């Protein structure tokens, strides 16, 4: 079918088309990209782990437990790595926050005068990576650019890149006023050239760390409620789930909030993925200030009901990152070359 006709059908019928599915076999697996925190000098760099076989709850650290990618640009620290596969399956992109908090600790200042860029790497095989590049995506009114992720939008033939920023008034160039984080987005076809940034999700209070997965023509978005906890906001500092048939809709339908409450003290940095085999989805939530990532699972993505996995063996101190399903060849290559 010609590409133009296919895109027309996608727009007409609202189909959701993502990267090609991984052909699952017992030799399939997963790649976990993450950082380990600001408590050590090299914790804010990119670490990899590979699953043991096709088990998304058992992991082996790669590269001897050392960073696989390190930042030489911007703040020289990278957090919140996000991995995605191109729609033709031939390329991988890794996006990350340009931020180093080791030895800093001033969270207010880095949201007023922090980086407006994201960091980008490319690879054809997940082993050999391009030179790091810095991509300016946020407007001058932004004080920070946190946790960039992207999702392929087949209807427009471009990636939707989204992140969290505090926005300040245009007549406040020093960013001295009050603000809160909202989710922004821009589009790109190459992660080099980006459209003008626009607001994607602004509920009137601070939200960060959105991630998206599509299933049966519906997008499911997971976001951290960043408000300070109070009796009137009992789900603050936890992850909420929404759904929409339109990736760029200004409002989404509520599914669930307080995800993980009772099993974890608080949560952020969700990463969600479908198992290579069977109808099961996994949602890893970063219990920041606690254990790091804790896995949850469900057999019904639409329900909003997530149960903490009963047993798991994750890498050491994994923080906000991504789990990417792999083909058998990709899984074998990572174990062979980066063990």
Automatic annotation (TrEMBL):
Keyword Ligase set for record: no
InterPro entries: GH43_arabinanases, Glyco_hydro_beta-prop_sf
Span of the signal peptide: 1-23
Keywords: Signal
CDD domains: GH43_Bt3655-like
Protein name: Glycosyl hydrolases family 43
């Amino acid at each position: 079918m010609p590409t133009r006709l296919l895109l027309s059908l996608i727009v007409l019928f609202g189909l959701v088309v993502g990267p090609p599915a991984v052909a699952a076999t017992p030799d399939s697996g997963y790649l976990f990209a993450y950082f380990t925190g600001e408590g050590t000098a090299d914790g804010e760099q990119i670490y990899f782990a590979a699953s043991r076989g096709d088990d998304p709850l058992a992991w082996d650290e790669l590269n001897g437990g050392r960073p696989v990618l390190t930042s030489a640009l911007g703040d020289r620290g990278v957090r919140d790595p996000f991995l995605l596969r191109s729609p033709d399956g031939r390329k991988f992109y890794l996006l990350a926050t340009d931020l180093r908090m080791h030895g800093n600790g001033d969270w207010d200042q880095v949201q007023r005068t922090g980086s407006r860029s994201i960091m980008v790497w490319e690879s054809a095989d997940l082993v050999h990576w391009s030179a790091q590049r810095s991509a300016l995506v946020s407007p001058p009114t932004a004080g920070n650019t946190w946790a960039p992720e992207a999702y392929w939008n087949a209807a427009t033939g471009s990636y939707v890149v989204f992140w969290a920023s505090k926005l300040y008034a245009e007549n406040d160039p020093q960013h001295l006023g009050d603000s809160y984080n909202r989710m922004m987005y821009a589009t790109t076809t190459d992660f080099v050239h980006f459209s003008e940034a626009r607001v994607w999700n602004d509920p009137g209070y601070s939200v960060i760390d959105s991630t998206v997965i599509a299933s049966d023509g519906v997008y499911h978005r997971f976001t951290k409620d960043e408000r300070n906890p109070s009796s009137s906001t009992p789900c603050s500092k936890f992850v909420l789930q929404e759904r929409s048939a339109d990736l760029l809709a200004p409002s989404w339908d509520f599914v669930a909030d307080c995800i993980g409450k009772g099993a974890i003290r608080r949560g952020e940095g969700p990463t969600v993925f479908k198992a290579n085999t069977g109808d099961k989805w996994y949602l890893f939530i970063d219990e920041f200030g606690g254990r790091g990532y804790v896995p949850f699972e469900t057999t019904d993505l639409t329900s909003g009901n997530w149960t903490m996995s009963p047993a798991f063996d994750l890498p050491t101190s994994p923080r906000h990152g991504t789990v990417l399903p792999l083909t058998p060849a990709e899984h074998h290559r990572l174990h062979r070359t980066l063990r």
